[in-house]
Prior knowledge:
GO biological process, one term: cell division
Structural class: alpha/beta
Largest sheet: 6 strands, mixed
CATH architecture of the largest domain: 3-Layer(aba) Sandwich
Organism: Oceanobacillus indicireducens
Number of helices: 7
CATH superfamily of the largest domain: P-loop containing nucleotide triphosphate hydrolases
Strand content: 25-35%
Helix content: 25-40%
Number of domains: 2
Family: Belongs to the ABC transporter superfamily.
Radius of gyration: 17 Å
Oligomer: single chain
Shape: globular
Distance between the termini: 31 Å
GO molecular function, one term: ATP binding
CATH topology of the largest domain: Rossmann fold
Subcellular location: Cell membrane
Amino acid sequence: xxxxxxxxxxxxxxxxxxxxxxxxxxxxxxxxxxxxxGAGKSTFIKLIYREEKPTKGNIIxxxxxxxxxxxxxxxxxRREIGVVFQDFKLLPRLTVYENVAYALEVIEExxxxxxxxxxxxLEEVGxxxxxxxxxxxxxxxxxxxxxxxxxxxxxxxxxxxxxxTGNLDPETSWGIMKTFEEINDKGTTLIMATHSKEIVNTFxxxxxxxxxxxxxxxxxxxxxxYEV
Length: 228
């Protein structure tokens, strides 16, 4: 599902973010990416959905070799990948329904198909009764659930979450994690970068730890392993 072979990433300013990454993530896995700030977690995440390109090495996503992927094909790759951000990235003037529907409008889904699928995913994340609300009328946890609904509305094979609970209180974070587990239980591969020791140590999954751009630990049902 996700294969990185000897991947390096050096930015134009000379910062070496990743230094020889080798990793194999299978369909249906739930993987935490952990490490201190600046360790290379965000770069790792961005390489998966082609926000960044590696300086050297091979990346294969869903059997697609990203080194050979033409720019015009990148949007098609991203249809298979849902992304959830720490700061939600919702469109403030659109309702909950419209924010989620937008992802389907882009791929020219039929109006009937959009209505059906949007209401399905809003029910899945517990927000069916708030479809007509604007983001500003929701709590932080509810906004993150809208972000999750938008990420999964295309039925992606991979969901990437970059610090998705970073701005949320512990109780709300727990609810978000339950939602992620339900998504993963349906067969979606889930990759989550996080600084939350409590979440990693409670919801036991595979843990990949990155330090100075290098994978230093890769454990099934691992622990966070850092002081916070």
